[in-house]
Amino acid sequence: MNHQPSAISHKLFDWSRVDDVLLDVDGTLLDRHFDNFFFEEELPRRYAAKHGLMVEDARERLLAMYRAVEGELDWTDLNYWTKTLDIDVVALTKELDYLIAFHPDSVDFLRHVQAQGKRIYLLTSAHAAGVKIKVAKTRIDRYVDRIVNAFEVGYLKMRPEFWPTCQRLLGFEPSRSLYIDDDEACLAAAQKFGVKFLYHRSKSSSRQPPQPSSRYESIESFHELLAPGDRL
Question: pTM of this prediction?
Answer without folding.
Answer: 0.92
